[in-house]
Design goal:
Blueprint lengths: L6 E9 L11 E7 L10 H11 L10 E2 L2 E2 L3 E5 L2 E2 L15 E6 L5
Parallel strand pairs: 1-7
Antiparallel strand pairs: 1-2, 3-4, 5-6, 5-7
Length: about 110
């Protein structure tokens, strides 16, 4: 019998209009695999793809990602710290992390 795949429980939040892409919910408590398909620890880059494939209900993925990266104008906070201080998409996700995506793009 195969061992269960280890997972990480994290919180992902969306504000500034991004929540509309995720079923109009701002806070999601999710479990993600602890390792990617290559056996490496998952990072924010993995999470972004995971969110697009598994959590995003809106077909307009280009409002969240551009060329497989978070779209310019979206701030990302990892445990209340700017992701630029944490290694951006290379940050390895840990149990209990909170990742917040904030859109600074507004229509007018």
């Amino acid at each position: 019998m195969a061992e269960p795949t280890p997972s990480l429980r994290i919180t992902v939040e969306f504000t500034g209009g991004l929540e509309m892409l995720f079923n109009n919910e701002t806070k999601h408590k999710i479990s993600i695999p602890a390792r990617d398909q290559d056996g490496m620890a998952v990072n924010v880059g993995f999470l972004i793809q995971y969110l697009c494939d598994n959590l995003m209900k809106d077909p307009r993925k280009e409002l969240f990602v551009l060329e497989n990266a978070v779209r310019p104008g979206i701030l990302v906070l990892i445990n209340d710290a700017d992701w630029e201080l944490e290694g951006e998409d290379k940050y390895e996700i840990a149990e209990g992390d909170t990742i917040l995506f904030v859109s600074t793009l507004h229509g007018g």
